[in-house]
Design a protein that fits this description.
Elements (H helix, E strand, L loop, with lengths): L7 E5 L4 H12 L3 E6 L2 H14 L5 E5 L5 H15 L4 E4 L9 H5 L13 E4 L8 E4 L3
Parallel strand pairs: 1-2, 1-4, 2-3, 4-6
Antiparallel strand pairs: 5-6
Helix pairs in contact: 1-2
Length: about 140
Amino acid sequence: MRSFNNKVAAITGAASGMGRQLAVQLARHGCHLALSDVNESGLAETQVLARQANRAIRISVRTLDVSDRKAVFDWADATAREHGKVNLIFNNAGVGLASTAEATWHWGQKGTTSARSTRISRNSATARGAVTLASPS
């Protein structure tokens, strides 16, 4: 992608850290934003920072728990309706696990000896041609 201008990015985990910085940087480059996080106050702060970076973009926000599959799909549908398209999906939010590195290494299917890998897939249901980076369910 040569330009983010007039593209639409959906970002989970946008209330702080990498998600917040990603939102602000994309806003500076003219990218419209659909932001989500469980942290409502942090999400509002990110919205303010993104708006300060570029007053001309559309920004939608939703308090969202990514461990709730139905809520995630509802947010995806609402984002596509509100913005008309989605070009970029950043699955930045995480669901924490408390375990040792050894246990995490065997986190995948029973009998596997490698860590759970990420995959790149096309999400045609909400954004024809959008690329998402996500961990397999």
